[in-house]
TrEMBL record:
InterPro entries: AGPR (IPR050085), AGPR_AS (IPR023013), AGPR_dimerisation_dom (IPR058924), AGPR_type-1 (IPR000706), NAD(P)-bd_dom_sf (IPR036291), Semialdehyde_DH_NAD-bd (IPR000534). PROSITE patterns: ARGC (PS01224). It is found in: Cytoplasm. Its main location: cytoplasm. Transmembrane segments: none annotated. Catalyzes the NADPH-dependent reduction of N-acetyl-5-glutamyl phosphate to yield N-acetyl-L-glutamate 5-semialdehyde. Residues 13-151 form the Semialdehyde dehydrogenase NAD-binding domain. This is N-acetyl-gamma-glutamyl-phosphate reductase. The gene is argC. HAMAP family: ArgC_type1.
Amino acid sequence: MHIKQIEEIVVIKVGIVGATGYTGVELLRLLALRDDVCLQVVTSRELDGTPVADVFPNLRGYIDIAFSNPDDEALAACDVVFYATPHTVAMKSAASLMAKGTRIIDLSADFRLKDRALWEQWYKEKHESPELIELAVYGLPEVNRDAIRQAQLVAVPGCYPTAVQLGFLPLLEAGLVDTSRLIADAKSGVSGAGRKAAVGSLLCEASESLNAYGVAGHRHLPEISQGLEKAAGQAVNLTFIPHLTPMIRGIHATLYATPLGDVSAQQLQSLYEARYADELFVDVMPPGSQPATRNVKGSNRCQMAVHYLPASNTIVVLSVIDNLVKGASGQAVQNMNIMFGLPENEGLQTLSLLL
Ligand SMILES: NC(=O)C1=CN([C@@H]2O[C@H](COP(=O)(O)OP(=O)(O)OC[C@H]3O[C@@H](n4cnc5c(N)ncnc54)[C@H](OP(=O)(O)O)[C@@H]3O)[C@@H](O)[C@H]2O)C=CC1
Ligand SMILES: CC(=O)N[C@@H](CCC(=O)OP(=O)(O)O)C(=O)O
């Protein structure tokens, strides 16, 4: 009886809405081996009734349930539900699950922006759960760890916003740079666009080529600006240009800022090392380093290096993540660990694949 009670407390019943997408199957990969997690409901409308392992053979022998249609009653029986769905799905059903006590970790952008009008402007939809926006905690553990612990609803940051914010934060928190001119030049692998069929993601379109997109405005701009302004305590003016690159996973962000006064490479290095000294998933590399996306492929780590170029008086920060791990599902699991009082790196101690 005593053991059963302990088991009931430590095994987290998990639901995943949208478990056949790229972030959904990454959640399955990260959770499948855990003894403290029971995958109770994994949804797909298209593959309702199909065993998970029939679709994802890498999970054979580890996950023996089938996909099912999203059903709020079944989901509400879970301790935590991940929404790995396109924008506007979570905002339609999160409230009913939360009313039954279920905790929500939303990988979409439904609850990331605190300004509802701004969200509606960028996502071109009416927000259907405005009352939850204030309640939602922005799930960047390196900034909001204490609030995440108590949260019933976590909005997991987007992939570009994770790489860009982590890279800029030390400079802005220290008030070291001109906030009226920040530049983020970021590149993403094609899995960032999701698993749905789309011409831009075809091999012939996306390989052997590199292009910028969203130059006139990308929906991650307001999300990144919101986080940077909070860190700086003042308005910021950010130029953010995303690019599509011919690789499957990875985000590489090159960040530029102008110092307000005298700085040195050594001072910047110390600043970054001190800011992230206690962070398990941020690796500040030695001076002169140039991190590659392959260093973090499959891992939950953000690797970064800070440079100072005296000739142009410019600070350059290089920040890399795996868009599907620290940029989405890994960070979502990191949030779950914090919410349930578990070691933050539980199930996330994976080294990068490198090749
Ligand atoms: N890909 C990435 O690198 C990142 C993605 N994100 C965000 O995470 C979310 C998921 O992205 P990703 O995995 O790439 O998306 P995919 O397009 O790969 O997968 C979407 C999943 O959601 C399900 N789905 C689609 N529409 C609905 C609906 N109306 N109701 C219920 N389920 C639905 C799909 O299954 P079915 O249609 O069968 O139900 C599928 O399983 C998105 O909001 C994305 O912006 C965030 C950071 C990084
Ligand atoms: C390469 C690519 O297409 N990337 C996606 C970003 C994916 C993501 O993380 O964004 P959200 O969660 O905010 O949708 C894009 O630019 O739309």
